[in-house]
Design brief:
Elements (H helix, E strand, L loop, with lengths): L2 H17 L2 H21 L2 H34 L2 H35 L6 H30 L4 E3 L6 E3 L2 H5 L2 H31 L8 H36 L1 H8 L5 E2 L3 E6 L8 E5 L2 H7 L5 E2 L2 H12 L8 H28 L13 H11 L6 H16 L4 E3 L3 E2 L10 H31 L25
Antiparallel strand pairs: 1-2, 3-6, 4-5, 7-8
Helix pairs in contact: 1-3, 1-15, 2-3, 2-5, 2-7, 3-4, 3-8, 3-15, 4-5, 5-7, 7-8, 7-12, 7-14, 8-9, 8-12, 9-12, 12-14
């Protein structure tokens, strides 16, 4: 493999691994804040105990996410120095904002939240976790703004003296139409990830006989909160994905054409559910939904959608000779796997909510079709959180690979961004090192999650601090 191919592989491995924790950090911080707000309003011990459990999961996930995020930013200098040198002035402000939020705002207030639960007034303590939640959302937005620039470059000018790109409008960067559409879509997916984790843990502890009887209502609450979060997130992903698809069709028509393997420009274009090449058939056998692609791409079922062949000819004329077609099988199948994993996770959440409505319980030990469905649900609990994670992973792969051969669409090619002096041997060695460290972190995170979920539930505020919840309780120091 060449240095370019190894650099792309390394960046993909680092980013995919990091992105497994980012959605969880975002959603768990908001869910922790929401559960604590419910406890603050009604003092229901179920919400207090659920707050502590989700907060512990958040802290473990946040720590791993920060470490993996550092490696991802390190990648720009290691493997993509030519890109960093040319576009560093554009990416610098977003990376600086994200770094300050993660290392100062979020980390500081997360520490205050954890260590201040029996020292701060309840309302002040609640405010600390909301600061963390808002900080994660802002952090996510600015990073998505940086990625949106790569999809649709705006607010940039080339310095004639240095030949480098300079940020001409920070406002244009953060109001890029791509990030405005991508942010709600990404956040909806993040809440699916966090909801699925709580759903799996709640069902496991409530309906597999683990835990004490007085803890059962809290585990049931977590299961239903997780199911509602996953279901609402799944619906929001579909709605915001429709908006994002129309924006991407406008700014990157080749990406939409690649997602459908649409080679010829077509009006009333159908959406291909799947297509396979069977022996003895000259053309792939496809299951299509008439007119749906035109509607998804433009909002008009009769509209014309540009095909790959016409776009390739257009780009060759506009940007010069070259291959501007991404890897079509990857674009086609990642797009469908993204949708499929998301739909499956949403269906599981809907099943749990239906089976536990109005105080009902799952019956994995019972008889009948419903009990059979409950048994399958409980049996495959470890897979449930992996569904939104898999959807997010293949969605990211689709977004980035279908933009190729561009790092910054229309301005900067991927082949021009790799570090010029980096050798394949150095890349293999660094990739092996990253894989080793990430493997250790994965084991640590999984063990922490299992340990937290198997442990007993604790109240949000210790008993000695609840004599008067409206007052601040400061224990005497001990030495």
């Amino acid at each position: 493999m060449t240095a370019l191919e190894l650099s792309r592989l390394q960046f993909a491995v680092v980013t995919v691994y990091h992105y497994l924790f980012v959605p969880l950090s975002i959603s768990l911080s908001v869910l922790t804040a929401g559960l604590q707000t419910a406890w603050w309003r009604n003092r229901d011990p179920r919400f207090g105990r659920a707050t502590m459990l989700v907060g512990k999961l958040l802290m473990a996930t946040f720590a791993v996410g920060v470490v993996t995020g550092l490696v991802q930013e390190f990648q720009f200098g290691l493997s993509w120095s030519a890109f960093a040198r040319y576009y560093g002035d554009v990416f610098g402000p977003t990376l600086a904002i994200e770094g300050m939020l993660a290392f100062f705002l979020e980390a500081t207030f997360l520490g205050l939240w954890w260590f201040g639960r029996d020292r701060l007034r309840p309302l002040v303590h609640l405010a600390t976790i909301w600061v963390v939640a808002v900080g994660t959302l802002i952090s996510a937005y600015v990073i998505l703004a940086a990625n949106a620039f790569m999809q649709h470059p705006v607010g940039v000018a080339i310095d004639p003296a240095t030949g480098r790109a300079q940020l001409s409008s920070f406002g244009a960067l953060i109001t890029n139409e791509v990030v405005v559409a991508a942010f709600p879509h990404t956040m909806a997916g993040a809440f699916m990830a966090g909801g699925a984790l709580l759903l799996a843990l709640g069902v496991w502890r409530r309906w597999k006989g683990a835990g004490s009887a007085d803890e059962a209502p809290t585990w049931r609450l977590l299961a239903r909160v997780g199911a509602w979060t996953t279901l609402v997130g799944g619906v929001a992903v579909a709605l915001t994905g429709d908006v994002l698809g129309k924006v991407m069709t406008e700014v990157q028509p080749m990406k939409m054409a690649a997602a459908e393997a649409l080679y010829e420009t077509t009006s009333h274009a159908p959406f291909s559910v799947f297509a396979v090449q069977l022996p003895g058939h000259a053309q792939p056998v496809s299951l299509d939904i008439p007119w749906l692609l035109s509607f998804l791409a433009t909002g008009d079922p009769t509209a014309t959608v540009q095909g790959i062949d016409d776009l390739q000819a257009q780009y060759a004329t506009q940007f010069g000779a070259g291959n501007y077609t991404p890897w079509i099988p990857v674009a086609y199948w990642t797009f469908r796997l993204m949708i499929g994993f998301g739909v499956l996770a949403t269906a599981v959440a809907a099943w749990v909510l239906w089976r536990t409505r109005r105080g009902r319980d799952l019956e994995p030990a019972g008889r009948g079709w419903f009990a059979l469905g409950d048994r399958w649900l409980v049996r495959f609990l470890p897979v449930i959180p992996a569904l939104p994670a898999a959807a997010a992973t293949v969605g990211w792969l689709f977004t980035e690979t279908a933009r190729q051969p561009w790092l910054v669409f229309g301005l900067f090619r991927t082949a021009d961004g790799v570090s010029p002096t980096l050798t394949p041997t150095e890349l293999v060695a660094s990739l092996a090192g990253f894989a080793l460290v990430y493997g250790v972190l994965a084991v640590v995170w999984v063990r922490l999650v299992v340990h937290v979920s198997r442990g007993g539930l604790v109240d949000l505020v210790p008993e000695q601090a609840e004599t008067n919840p409206a007052e601040s309780v400061v224990p005497e120091p001990s030495y």
